[in-house]
Design a protein that fits this description.
This protein has 399 residues and is α/β, with parallel strands linked by helices. Helix content is 43%, strand content 17%. It folds into two domains: 2-189 and 366-397, Glycogen Phosphorylase B (Rossmann fold, 3-Layer(aba) Sandwich); 203-360, Glycogen Phosphorylase B (Rossmann fold), CATH 3.40.50. The radius of gyration is 21 Å and the shape is globular. Helix 7 (216-226) links the parallel strand 10 (203-207) and strand 11.
């Protein structure tokens, strides 16, 4: 098969769960003998090659800052969408399948618009589906309405759709997807066993982007409260993002510089070592499309605390009291209480976390999802054939 993978970021030039997913997908398909092209925005120095593992990387837009302050800029997605459209109008017939993220939406609209000329099949990942109310909370009433309408237009593009949670499968149906959605089993690409049990230190860890929806500030407040009962408690905050300067000021304002560290982005080995010895991972996000870091922590025997919320699919990965806890909210008092519950559960919770991982790891693995995708790459019919929709519906109903 001749496959075109479309995403505006490329790991490790930018770091995130989606970036790792698309790089892994492209590399896996290339290893199976497919001819794979990855089109993206340029994030490397001009004149350098970004090709990897038998995958040809093509830049269809310039190197740009994707974020301004706390939110994504509008210009990069627009330019990327135009670049995708231009590329697929010229080269679409060279591909059998175009596999793209739904977001940023203009690239999906471009792929849909060029498909009539290119004749390729369109397969789309929906990591998240936002409700109209969330769009308006995020961008304001008018701009949020525009964002929701653009998302709705993307749902009307004929496609084979995939997502990673039951939450977003339901949303895809409710928001008007043409056809059905296949829920992929998972995204975990690490080892499936062989980790040694490690005793916990009195430290909680956060790993992720420092953005408003991650609510890292609530964790800082929660740790401050928990330290009133557990003065030896420390916190390590890994990652980077637009809210990092504010978080550093918040740590200093509480006088917690000796207890809360924020080393930024660190090598993968260092992050894994930190999670392995942590009392727990805390993910206070109000919005998660999946929550891969929860699985990664469980693989190391470390339970997770996630915050309940209507937009947080990570709660689907937690069996409360088995591999972690679901806090009723991300309020600092709730996070502090959950941290104390993890401490009280002690080694028993770490043992049950490892057992949970051993029972679920293969089901939630990247390889399981790639098996589903590989079968679809090889066997799906041309656009317009209704068997693909029936197959996807059967896949979802069987779960």
């Amino acid at each position: 098969m001749r496959v075109c993978v479309v995403y505006d970021c490329l790991y490790p030039h930018t770091i995130g769960g989606a970036e790792r997913w698309y790089r892994n997908v492209a590399a896996r398909l290339a290893s199976e003998g497919h001819e794979v092209t990855y089109i993206t925005l340029r994030q490397w120095r001009r004149g350098e090659s970004a090709d990897f593992d038998g995958v040809r990387v093509v830049s269809v837009g310039p190197r740009m800052h994707l974020y301004r302050h706390e939110r994504r800029r509008i210009l990069p997605p627009l330019l990327f969408g135009l670049g995708v459209l231009r590329h697929l109008l010229r080269h679409g017939r060279e591909y059998d399948v175009v596999y793209t993220a739904s977001f940023p939406y203009f690239s999906l609209l471009a792929a849909g618009a060029a498909r009539g000329r290119g004749g390729y099949r369109l397969m789309v990942d929906w990591h998240e589906v936002w409700t109209r109310s969330y769009w308006q909370d995020y961008l304001g009433r008018r701009a949020g309405l525009v964002g929701w309408l653009v998302q709705a237009a993307c749902l009307q593009v004929p496609q084979r759709a995939y997502c990673f949670s039951q939450l977003h499968a339901r949303r895809l149906r409710a928001e008007g997807l043409r056809g059905e959605a296949t829920v992929l089993p998972g995204e975990y690409a690490g080892a499936l066993g062989g980790y040694s049990r490690t005793a916990a230190e009195p430290v909680v860890v956060f790993a992720g982007r420092h953005a408003p929806e991650k609510q890292v500030g609530a964790l800082i407040e929660g740790v401050a409260l928990a330290r009133e009962r557990m003065p030896e408690l420390r916190c390590e905050i890994y990652g980077d993002g637009p809210e990092r300067p504010q978080l550093l000021r918040q740590i200093a304002a509480h006088g917690l510089g000796a207890s809360i560290s924020a080393p930024g982005v660190v090598p993968r080995e260092e992050l894994e070592a930190a999670m392995r010895r942590a009392l727990c991972l805390v993910l206070p996000s109000r919005r998660e499309g999946y929550g891969l870091v929860v699985i990664e922590a469980a693989a190391l025997g470390t339970p997770s605390i996630v915050a309940a919320g209507p937009d947080n699919a990570a709660v689907e990965l937690i069996e409360d009291g088995v591999n972690g806890l679901v806090a009723s909210s991300a309020e600092p008092e709730e996070l502090a209480a959950s941290i104390m519950r993890v401490r009280e559960a002690g080694h028993r919770l770490r043992e049950s976390t490892i057992e949970w991982f051993e029972q679920n790891a293969r089901r939630l693995s990247f390889d399981e999802s790639l098996d589903v995708l590989s079968a679809d790459f090889a066997g799906e019919q041309r656009p317009g054939d209704q068997s693909s929709a029936r197959s996807a519906a059967a896949s979802l109903n069987a779960r």
